[in-house]
Write a structure and sequence with these properties.
The protein has four helices and four strands.
Length: about 100
């Protein structure tokens, strides 16, 4: 069975480093990119075409990162805090309109 390609945005931070280490040797997931603030998220999503993009970045950019992930066809997993209730609502509406499976916790 082929591995599911994923990227981790914020992979050099404290939590991102732990997540990257977990997925590095996983038998069901292929960690195709570990991104930090020096990377262009849109460019990396286009280049690697992941099924899943995990975001552990900063509150000031999490909303735009999530939009970028969704608009580029990946399923977002967002661990970054800072989204407002209105932003979460907008993201959920976008995901539903695109028929994307998602979870917001």
């Amino acid at each position: 069975m082929p591995k599911t390609p994923i990227i981790i945005n914020g992979a050099t931070g404290r939590i991102g480093t732990c997540i990257a280490a977990y997925f590095a040797g996983h038998d069901q997931f292929d960690l195709v990119a570990k991104l930090d603030s020096q990377h262009d998220l849109t460019e990396e999503l286009t280049k690697h075409n992941p099924t899943i993009a995990i975001d552990f970045t900063q509150p000031n950019c999490v909303y735009q990162n999530c939009l970028t992930i969704i608009e580029n066809g990946a399923h977002p997993i967002i661990g970054t805090t800072g989204l407002t209730a209105q932003q979460i609502h907008e993201l959920l509406l976008l995901l539903v309109s695109l028929d994307k499976k998602s979870y917001m916790i």
